[in-house]
Amino acid sequence: MPTQYFSFGHYLATIGTSNFGLGLFALIYPWLIVGVLQESPSRLGMAQMALLLPNLLFILPGGVVSDRSHRGSWLSLLYLLYLVPVGVLAGAILTNQLSFLVLIVCGMAFGTVSAFVQPTRESLLGYAAPNLMHQAVAKVVMVQFIAQGIGFAAAGQLESIGLTFLLALQMAAFVASSLLIRQSHPRPLERDKETLKPRQPLTELREGVQLFFETKALLHLVVLTFATGALAFGVYLVGMPLIAKQAYGGGAQLYAAMQVTFTLGVVSANFGVMKRAKMFNRPGRLIIITFLWRGGLVGVVALLPSFWVLFPTLFAWGFFSGLSMTLGRTLLHNQVPHELRSRASSVYQLCLFGGAPLGAWGCGFSIEAIGLSYTFMGITCLTLIVSVAAFFSPLWALVGRQDDRQGLVGGKSN
To answer: Which end of the chain is more exposed for a tag (fewer CB within 10 A), N or C?
Structure first.
């Protein structure tokens, strides 16, 4: 385990401030498309795809760069780079130049920064104790989604607060994140710096990818993660704002309330995980079961039920999503050597956010062609098929290890 100084408290504070800013953007960006510019579902799908597409191009190189950099300093710079697309968006709104093209460009720029942020931020979790990794991940996810929920709630008041104020608040959050991450992982003194090997980017990238092909259970984990991005994440990004606007005739406040309810489910799941002294005995099996449940809940949403059913369903959807993401990230961190963690995290994030742009694009066109309900029901059927296939994967029989990192790497599943 590395000996460099790491403050988990400052890291959690960084997670909070940065995800508050990300929560603001996650609600403002799609609402500008469907609520302000009145664009079609297919255009919303294209815009969400533009936001997520940079992950396909840059997240693997981002993992290599992270493993070769001092993570605190590099992440501090990346948080400041978020100011560029947010500042351009604010300028366009102030000068009445907001257009679909401006949103696409800002979305791609924002997504490019995120592609480098994600593996770097995730790899810092490797400094937590391995036997308590599930608690560390649960705390991070709790803070992440509480902060995002606050961001959703604040963005839901955009009609009364004003877009420019919210964007300024978002920029302030990223500046605070840049300062906090330097406190969490400061650059070591000159005498403590490690001597880096000569740079071999392609070799280093291949090492990160090869890890998953050598370990069947990890490979099946990222395949299921890709399915989550393409199905659940895609329908969530495009379907949710359209359900709020088209199916229920609501505005930004209803969309924000739906997001906050989902977030409360995520937080509740991770609060329970955080209280557990040990990791679950069958984490892979739980991941598959939560994937199955999420598919069923999407089917309930497809029926466009009353609010008394819709909001509990969204809470349950968030609960199973939160449990799944914590289990997946814990498995990854506990099974991957520290020197490969950024690259392994980038592969994991690539599968999640690589599937999402495809899902968002397909969901937008499907909604435009056959409608909201039929699209959601189709996603449910595909999710159930993938879940049944996953019952026969090495993940189903995977036993969690509490005391070391040998669960997957030490005993490969064939």
So the answer is: C
Question: Cα(387)–Cα(412) distance, rounded to whole angstroms?
Answer: 22
Residue 5 makes CB contacts below 8 A (sequence gap 6+) with 185, 186, 188
CATH number for the domain formed by residue range(s) 8-184+201-397:
1.20.1250.20
Map out the domains of the chain as residue ranges. Answer: 8-184+201-397
Retrieve residue 59's tokens. 């997240």
Strand (E) or helix (H) holding 220 = helix 216-227
Q: How far is CA 292 from CA 66, 221, 373, in A?
A: 34, 14, 19
Give the three-state DSSP class for 77: helix
Contact 74, 118 (CB under 8 A): no
User: Which residues contact residue 31 at a Cβ distance below 8 angstroms, ignoring those fewer than 6 apart?
Assistant: 155, 158, 241, 252, 255
**pTM for this prediction:** 0.72
Contact 176, 311 (CB under 8 A): no
| Residue 305: partners with Cβ closer than 8 Å, 6 or more residues away | 313
Q: What is the CA 250 to chain-centroid distance, rounded?
A: 26
Give the residue among 224, 241, 223, 250 at the shortest CA–CA distance from 360: 241
Radius of gyration of the chain (CA): 20
Q: Residue 269 and residue 150: Cα distance in Å, rounded?
A: 18
Amino acid (one-letter) located at 124: L
Which amino acid is it at 222? V
CB 385 within 8 A of CB 317: no
Amino acid residing at 65? V
| 10-residue averages of pLDDT along the chain (414 residues) | 67 94 91 87 87 82 73 90 95 92 94 88 70 76 89 85 90 95 75 49 65 74 84 82 87 87 91 76 85 92 92 95 84 68 72 77 87 90 90 76 41 37
One-letter amino acid at 223 equals: V
Q: Dihedrals φ, ψ of 266, to 5°? A: -60, -45
Report the distance separating Cα 390 and Cα 384, nearest Å. Answer: 10
